[in-house]
Amino acid sequence: xxxxxxxxxxxxxxxxxxxxxxxxxxxxxxxxxxxxxxxxxxxxxxxxxxxxxxxxxxxxxxxxxxxxxxxxxxxxxxxxxxxxxxxxxxxxxxxxxxxxxxxxxxxxxxxxxxxxxxxxxxxxxxxxxxxxxxxxxxxxxxxxxxxxxxxxxxxxxxxxxxxxxxxxxxxxxxxxxxxxxxxxxxxxxxxxxxxxxx
Length: 198
What we know:
Layout: H1 6-10, H2 15-28, E1 32-42, E2 48-55, E3 66-67, E4 70-72, H3 80-92, E5 100-104, E6 108-110, E7 115-123, E8 137-144, H4 145-149, E9 154-159, E10 167-174, E11 177-180, H5 181-197
Parallel strand pairs: 1-7
Antiparallel strand pairs: 1-2, 1-4, 2-3, 2-8, 5-7, 6-7, 9-10, 10-11
């Protein structure tokens, strides 16, 4: 019988262990890199929205999860901003040339997939005609800013994932979807930024 390995370790990992995993990933330089885009835009009703995607079901730790448009850094990308822009165009059909990147957000390490993810905050001035990438995107989710900023969207859920069973996680409830994990962590930073400026 093969050993379950680090997946079983993660089931009982305290926060100190997650911090240690991040430190090891930095020191060993083994983690992969990705860029994602938190893209705001005017809806057809001229309200501020941002876009999330529901990923396709596949054999991987992020199967069927809610996330931002984005993905793995490729050799042809000049930097992680380029990665986020390219992947946003590929996954949801918003041309890179129409997106203004406002700022870089805080990089986040995701232990289950061993990725350092660099998020960016961007805007596009016109309502995008979204085109989901058939191979990767199950559904495009448009989230009104007013809904996102409402405290009633903050929740906790007990979930079973590809690497843990019945774990209690903080989450957002947005557009009838439970948004948790790395996406929720990045959204939390965006929410704090917006709450401090609006």
